[in-house]
């Protein structure tokens, strides 16, 4: 009878251990990231009026592997509570900001959400976990393509991505229950305001491209009226395209 080489067994055990260890490391890093988000939420409560992020948002962020959405060179920092470069001069937002904006949107399982500024697709993935349908627009074609491929590979079937200028929204699928914008606009984009459902909300940064910016929460109270609340001073990359002429 042929003897099994023990070395094969040892190698197999080592391989299993490595896979287990890296999966475990990812989970513990994600847990640490969530703890930092919770702590930062408490620090900023006086500004934001938010004392705790909704547990469904935190759970979605714990489940989505942020390291898959950042470039290979930045993987070591994937779970750090900071923004990271994603190429083309763009950034993936700081996890705390992703959590806060998603919390403010109060996404329900029946919602149709529009996102402007797909970037890496990370925020899109968080929204897709919580909403029924997500439409997302990215102006840089290469980013739109890579995010579309990544989200498809990771099994998100409720996301539609297109390359274009998000300043104009996505008329065919409007009105939206919720709209999130992840690039700073010099003023409220009028078409986006039009495309929010009555009773719906939009969260977006507004301000100067090189200066003061604020995160704003906009609620559509009737066909003609909105309520606005300033949430927090922030720092975002600029909305390019049509928006740039108003800066
Ligand atoms: N939500 C992204 C953050 C990306 S940063 C993430 O999680 O990775 C903002 C993104 O907005 C950039 O990718 C930028 O190219 C895009 N953007 C800027 N102006 C835009 C516009 N007018 N329409 C659509 N996308 C725009």
The sequence of SSEs as H and E is HHHEEHEHEHEEHEEE
Mean pLDDT: 92
Strand order of the largest sheet: 5-4-3-6-7-8-9
Can you list the ligands bound to this structure? S-adenosyl-L-homocysteine
Helix amount: 25-40%
Strand element count: 9
- Structure annotation, total helices: 7
Instruction: Outline the low-pLDDT stretches.
Output: none
Shape annotation: globular
Structural class: alpha/beta
Strand residue percentage = 15-25%
Key terms for this structure?
single chain, 247 residues, alpha/beta, seven-stranded mixed sheet, two-stranded antiparallel ribbon, 9 strands, 36% helix, globular, binds S-adenosyl-L-homocysteine
Structure description:
With about 250 residues, the chain is α/β, with parallel strands linked by helices. A seven-stranded mixed beta sheet has the order 5-4-3-6-7-8-9. Strands 1-2 form a two-stranded antiparallel sheet. The protein has helices spanning about 5-45, 45-50, 55-65, 95-105, 120-130, 140-155, 190-195; strands spanning about 85, 90, 110-115, 135-140, 160-165, 175-180, 195-205, 215-220, 225-235. It has seven helices and nine strands; from the N terminus they run αααββαβαβαββαβββ. The radius of gyration is 20 Å and the shape is globular. The site of S-adenosyl-L-homocysteine (SAH) has 26 residues, from strand 2, helix 5 and strand 4.
